[in-house]
Amino acid sequence: MASADIQYISDERGETTGVIVPIALWREIESERETAYLLKSETMKRRLLEAKDRREGLPLEVVVEKLGI
Fold first, then answer.
1. SS3 category, 10
2. 5-25, pLDDT tens digit by residue?
3. Distances (CA, A) of 34 to 26, 31, 44, 55, 61
4. What is the phi/psi pair of residue 7, to 5°?
5. Residue 7 in 3-state DSSP?
6. Alpha helices, DSSP H only, in 1-69?
């Protein structure tokens, strides 16, 4: 993503007070922040790494049926 896609907002003194970013970039930033937050906890870090390496699981259809959604 080009830096030209980012727009800066300035106040009357010309000081940058905000930024407008494309939604795709914002979602990426939010995802990275959430991951960083979760990785602060050693327990959550272990669980996430275990889940990442897990090969077995339930198909989505089975989960939907079990949850009744």
1. strand
2. 999 999 999 999 999 999 999
3. 12, 5, 12, 24, 27
4. -115, 135
5. strand
6. 23-39, 42-53, 60-67
Q: Can you read off the two tokens belonging to residue 8?
A: 């800066």
C-alpha–C-alpha distance, residues 23 and 8, integer Å? 15
**Taking all residues of the chain, what is their mean pLDDT, rounded to a whole number?**
90
Q: Are 1 and 22 in contact (CB under 8 A)?
A: yes
Predicted confidence (pLDDT) per residue in 47-67, tens digit: 988 888 888 888 889 999 999
Sequence-separated (6 or more) residues with CB below 8 Å from residue 1: 22, 24, 25
